[in-house]
Write a structure and sequence with these properties.
The complex is a heterodimer of chains A (about 180) and B (about 290).
Chain A lengths: L2 E7 L2 E7 L5 H8 L18 E4 L2 E4 L12 E3 L12 H9 L8 H14 L5 H7 L10 H12 L24
Parallel strand pairs in A: 1-5
Antiparallel strand pairs in A: 1-2, 3-4, 3-5
Helix pairs in contact in A: 2-5
Chain B lengths: L4 E3 L4 H11 L3 E4 L5 H7 L6 E4 L9 E3 L5 E4 L4 H6 L1 H6 L1 H7 L5 H6 L2 H6 L8 H6 L3 E6 L2 E6 H4 E3 L2 E2 L6 E7 L6 E8 L10 E9 L6 E9 L9 H7 L6 H14 L10 H25 L2
Parallel strand pairs in B: 1-3, 2-3
Antiparallel strand pairs in B: 4-5, 5-10, 6-7, 6-10, 8-9, 11-12, 12-13
Helix pairs in contact in B: 10-11, 11-12
The chains are: A alpha+beta (about 180), B alpha+beta (about 290).
Amino acid sequence: MDYPLQLTVNGVGVKRIIEPQVRLLDLLREDLGLTGAKEGCGTGDCGACTVLIDGSPQHSCLTLAVEAEGAAVTTVEGLASDEKLNAVQSAFVAAGATQCGICTPGFVVMASAYLRDNPTPTDHELRMGIAGNLCRCTGYETIVTALHSVIDGKVELIDVAPEPQELAPEPEGEL
Amino acid sequence: MRRFDYAAPTQTFEACALLADRGEEACALAGGTDLIIQMRERGRAVPLVVSLRNLADLKGISQNDDGSLTIGAMATGGEVTDSCLVRDHALFISEGAELLGSIQIRNRGTLGGNVGNAAPSADAAPPLVAAGACASIVGAKGTREAAVGDLMTGPGQLALGPGELIQSFTVPALPAHTGTRYVRHVPRLEMDIAVVGIAALITLEDDLETIKDASVVLSAVAPTWPHARTAEEVLKGQPVSEKLLAHAGEAAAEDSRPISDVRASAGYRRMMVDVYTRRAAATAIERAKAAS
């Protein structure tokens, strides 16, 4: 049986008829093409799939899409304004707080929400705030450094690229 | 994940009827932080998932006229952690909830789910047991009350009939000069499962030197969340001293029934019950004095 679903994703209304076993992560990545949220572990341990559901950071891999009925979902793609990256994104760029990059969207979404709610955490509080996100490259120090620069108000917001890259055309035939 | 049917009723009686009707084939979905994993990773087949997300009477945290506190089963770990009502009423309930997974998990996982999942290593449930909380259970035949301590009958096993749901937990008003503490032993600070968890509630006499009442509940060292009855008896009526806490720790270790598994051996767990019972009781006593 399929279920009607209505929600907003990054401010855009989405209406679908979906099967209940579709996770929010599947809807975002496979249906809406928002591949920022990643599937790391699929069991709520790594935080790579973190999105905001009505502003609250949650695992999109543990959330059935039907459970997000009526919700406002924000993914990493929705954090920047039209002109500027947000402070956490800008700080990650400035500090080079990324290695392979798989964990980055989850960290950025989680840290953006955490610092919104706790603008002046101690170092320990900050580290506990992102403790639900794993970096398999163990690149935590630059991540924490980047977030401290946000806390200290030392981040210059970076312009969003003026011309969005065009997507490659769909490959033809079966993959 | 296997295909399943899904319902998100807006009335609790509807949810109960659906669950009763489909029996073993149906399962209630609260936050999903356990159920979705069981269905995806462990191949658990649930032909009908009944979501509790639209049930208003399972939500919220409120103080009652008699001084007791009612916490909806769908209150999330984050809500319980951050609630001033909960913190002021019985701090260890908030402390247990704060140990559930990560922030992301606490924003989905619920107090009812932590009890309902019936894991011996639950962190949020033992403080409810220690505080003498009652669960309000709703079913096709109406509502009944059950002590949270009587709900769990074994790992993954709850004394709930078909179609019954936990609606809320009511924590009685705690007496004057009472302090609480939940503490657990884990190799990592976050995202880990308790090797040993201890919920302690201590009430002092007016002299603030003698223990009037004590409740010590164990996590991860027995098939359920039992009281450490011998340790409680050791503490009751005695003047506070290092020696008394040491005796209580030893007694709690004797009361525990740990197993050896990937996280720790039974012997190590028993030693940690001793250590953490002392620490939990000491902090609960400090808090009882500070609150007086």
